[in-house]
Amino acid sequence: MKKIIPLYLVLMLVVLIVIIFFSLGVSKKMVVVKDGNIKQIPIEMQVGVYQDADCGMVIDELKDASQVIIKSGKSWFFHDHGGFVKWLEDKEFRDSAKIWVMSRDTKKWIDAREAFYSQTDETPMRYGFGAYEKREEKFIDFDTMRLRVLRGETLQNPAIRKQLLGKQ
């Protein structure tokens, strides 16, 4: 009996390790691109299900989420507005794509080209551009936001951060 107990414990440990290994091997399928959105309307997103098409991170909150949808119905998802700007820049559908952003003030999906952008919000990738439906004094329009992202004039840049926030 004394010889069977250690053998039994080792066997149980091996079984436990195999179970843990296989459970870790089963990965959750993340949504990066979704087909079939011919109407180009915003897709209701859930946190932890969608993956950012630019940086690959899981979208774990929606306050700075955005969606790029093309006429064929393909939709891509982002967790920071600066990410979709960079990602979209070299795409042939850059000007024709429908872009939806989550509004920080009304908490609904709005047209990105009609939105107003703060330059100093804390965003997941530190670009700093929160989208708003209602204009406030220091907000900028879509074209200005896009240009600043492409030039690197974001909160990621220490000089711009200091200029906008007065700190590094």
| Fraction of helical residues | 25-40%
Overall, the morphology is: elongated
Q: What structural class results from the helix and strand content?
A: alpha+beta
Strand content: 5-15%
In which order are the strands of the major sheet placed? 1-3-2-4-5
Distance between the termini: 68 Å
Largest pleated sheet: 5 strands, antiparallel
The count of strands amounts to 7
Layout of secondary structure:
Layout: H1 4-25, E1 33-34, E2 66-69, E3 75-78, H2 81-88, E4 98-102, E5 109-111, E6 116-117, E7 131-132, H3 142-151, H4 158-165
Antiparallel strand pairs: 1-3, 2-3, 2-4, 4-5, 6-7
What this model shows, in words?
The chain is of the alpha+beta class. Helices cover 29% and strands 13% of the residues. It has four helices and seven strands, in the order H-E-E-E-H-E-E-E-E-H-H. The protein has helices at residues 4-25, 81-88, 142-151, 158-165; strands at 33-34, 66-69, 75-78, 98-102, 109-111, 116-117, 131-132. The strands form two sheets. It has a five-stranded antiparallel beta sheet with strand order 1-3-2-4-5, covered by helices on one side. The relative contact order is 0.11.
